[in-house]
Design brief:
Serine Threonine Protein Phosphatase 5, Tetratricopeptide repeat; elongated; 71% helix; mainly alpha
């Protein structure tokens, strides 16, 4: 009898070794991440940026984009790390310094360091000065840099004049203790350049600093009226316009003896995230005022 011959099966196509996957193009990943970022899809954008950097870890624009994503997702530490790498990789790119300023201002509330970053961005590209002006002003004011506030107010008036230039000039004068000069400058602007909520608000601040609470209240109420009518100027100059206006109104109502209105405004200003340590004391004074009928001074 013949013996069966063992046959070795020929390899099937499915048993062939798989072809290596092509490496994704970092530029394509970056562009896809930017599309997600513009749509507000930060987590998807972050994933794509990270994939791009794993393939090519020296892409400064991708570090900038990923820093913005980290900041939007509430991770300032990683945002700062990426922003610093972006600056180190491309120290002559103004946008890298501007982003570092954003991370320091918004993520760490470090106005001095943020202002330095913004200033470097403007030094590298003076055309960025108007767009970065509000952030630079906020940093100078938060850091108490009165001379720098005066410099920025002058820059506003000379380089991009508008009725809001008087707002910044009034704020700078108040920071320097020149209350009457602030009243004069802002009052003249309202008469000559137009009535804007932001101007009435800073005029109220100047009267309040001067102890003229009835006049301050008139100004704050006019700012509220204009804002309710659609004037957006307070939102352009204040980070928390509604809260700040309510707080100003509450103080003014308290100091003119309108105690119930004071309590109402102050309570409405008391948002859970607001860092206003003196607010409970003011509310307490408003409540006592309603009982005793004695206004604060």
């Amino acid at each position: 009898a013949s013996c069966p011959v063992a046959l070795t099966p020929s390899p099937s196509p499915s048993s062939a070794p798989p072809s290596p996957m092509p490496t994704p193009d970092p530029a394509v990943l970056y562009e896809a991440g930017m599309a997600h970022q513009q749509a507000g899809e930060w987590e998807q954008a972050l994933s794509l940026f990270s994939q791009a950097l794993q393939i090519q870890p020296d892409l400064a624009p991708v570090y900038r984009a990923r820093a913005a994503a980290h900041l939007a997702l509430g991770d300032p530490e990683r945002a700062l790390q990426d922003a610093q790498i972006a600056v180190a990789l491309a120290p002559d790119v103004p946008e890298a310094h501007a982003l570092l300023g954003e991370v320091l201002r918004r993520g760490f509330r470090a106005p001095l360091q943020a202002l330095e970053a913004y200033d470097e961005a403007v030094r590298l590209d003076p055309a960025l000065a108007p767009a970065l002006f509000p952030a630079r002003w906020e940093c100078a004011e938060a850091a108490g840099l009165t001379d720098r506030m005066a410099q920025l107010a002058l820059e506003s008036a000379r380089r991009y004049p508008s009725p809001m230039s008087a707002y910044y000039q009034g704020r700078a004068l108040l920071a320097q203790g020149a209350r009457r000069a602030a009243i004069e400058r802002v009052g003249r602007a309202i008469q000559e350049e137009g009535s804007f909520a932001a101007l009435w608000f800073v005029l109220g601040e100047a009267y309040a600093a001067d102890g003229a609470w009835p006049q301050a209240l008139t100004c704050y109420e006019e700012a509220r009226r204009l804002t309710k009518a659609g004037d957006p100027s307070l939102s352009a100059v204040l980070t928390h316009p509604d809260r700040d206006l309510l707080l100003a109104l509450g103080r003014a109502y308290l100091y003119v003896g309108r105690c119930a209105e004071a309590e109402e405004s102050l309570r409405r200003a008391a948002a859970p995230e607001a860092n206003l340590p003196d607010l409970p004391t003011l509310i307490g004074r408003a409540m006592i005022c309603q009982v005793t009928g004695q206004q604060d001074h």
